[in-house]
Amino acid sequence: MSNTKFPDGFMWGGATAANQFEGGYNLGGKGLACADLFTGGTHTEPRRITAKLEESTFYPSHEAVDFYHHYKEDIRLMAEAGFKVFRMSINWTRIFPTGKEAEPNEEGLQFYEDVFNELKKYQIEPLVTIAHFDIPLALTNEVNGWASRDLIDYYLHFCEVIFKRYKHLVKHWLTFNEINTSTMEIGNYLSLGIRHAEGDFLHQKDDPTVRYQALHHQFVASAKAVKLGHSINPDFMIGCMIAYMPRYPRTCEPSDVLLAKQTEAMHSHFCGDVHVKGYYPFYANTYFKDNGITIEFAPEDEQVLREGTVDFYTFSYYLTLCASNDPAYKNSGKSVIGGAENPYLKTNDWGMQTDPVGLRIALNDLYTRYNIPLMVVENGLGAFDKLEDDGTINDPYRIDYFKEHILQMHKAIQDGVDLIGFTIWGCIDLVSASTGEMAKRYGIIYVDKYDDGTGDYSRKKKASYYWYKDVISSNGENGLEE
């Protein structure tokens, strides 16, 4: 008998985002979102942001893998795999095309109601991200996105409508996806909808004061959304979502250790501390002072943050990073996040170094810090999958990746961590957020869609699908043998 059985009620499942998965960008009354101006890219040529839609340019999110028309088939495939939970997002502009309308778009509301009812039919719990890198383009063009405090009220209007409409269909909500990406330059347009000149979306004109002020507005909006949601349905569980990227010191030289702690604090802990503890931590105030950043608080903001703390903490985990003060190592890593390369870890085709043990470390650190339920809502491997002549897709590398990470999650639970669920990223192939390509496939289900826009959208189960199904059906007793 295996000793890797997970706790009863553990929520196994998968995760997607509307702008990478749904498609139907101009159907059903949907308006344009910032994500609709992201072009395609490759793992060697970064995607771009265009100032407006260009007829000759391919925008992957416009069709993505067409969940909009395939949701019944996709949910059936999830059910066959035994999913207990499906993390998805609601496309803001499908409900409010410009973000400013007084009345919502009924066709958009009905679409998601149909999706939730389909999930309910198979007893799959939806875990809904309210804002997953998805901001109405009109709010970027007219008020500069989250740099404007106006976004708080627009967002809360969106929340109120979906909380009331789906209060009997959805229990678990996340306010913002990977909110801490806004502590980095990449967050300007992606997370905050701050106006951006055409060009490489990884390198943007950056004003840290504007960026952190915009992030503050998201903190306030999140806290208010938590209170609003609980007033509509006290049974709602409303959480945060952090892109958790632990930092190791490259060496045990004390300055490397200090740098690792400082960078991890601002990039991985700051947002979680505000969400869970309800106030700005001391180290953030020191960082702002040292960097000439001033955050404007409205008189009620401190109380709002204290009263709107989250019920549970969720995070994505893909990699760990190294910090070094030595110029020879400082920027030796290939990750878009930067940092030094770790000589003890393997690096994949996209420069990410995989570190399963780091997940156990992260879970222990987070539970020690917050002592509330945790959930890993993104973890996955992008890879060049090959469709064989007989129609099979053999991806043992993905099975190995998940197996190694799930084993470390089980060890963290044995350590005493309250881990309640796990949703693999891109359970069905989707558009990569970082590179804008389909070739970087994450799913356990293959979609016949390619980077030139061709494909018939047919779905095929990969070898990893059958493996994950076995893990779920046995609650971890099968498929995880060390």
Automatic annotation (TrEMBL):
GO terms for cellular component: cytosol. GO terms for molecular function: 6-phospho-beta-glucosidase activity. Gene3D superfamilies: Glycosidases (3.20.20.80). It is an enzyme of class 3 (hydrolase). One of its GO terms (biological process) is carbohydrate catabolic process. The keyword Repressor does not apply. Its EC number is 3.2.1.86. The keyword Lipid metabolism does not apply. It holds the Pfam family Glyco_hydro_1. Keywords: Glycosidase, Hydrolase. It comes from the Bacteria. Belongs to the glycosyl hydrolase 1 family. This is 6-phospho-beta-glucosidase. It comes from Listeria welshimeri serovar 6b (strain ATCC 35897 / DSM 20650 / CCUG 15529 / CIP 8149 / NCTC 11857 / SLCC 5334 / V8). The lineage of its organism: Bacteria, Bacillati, Bacillota, Bacilli, Bacillales.
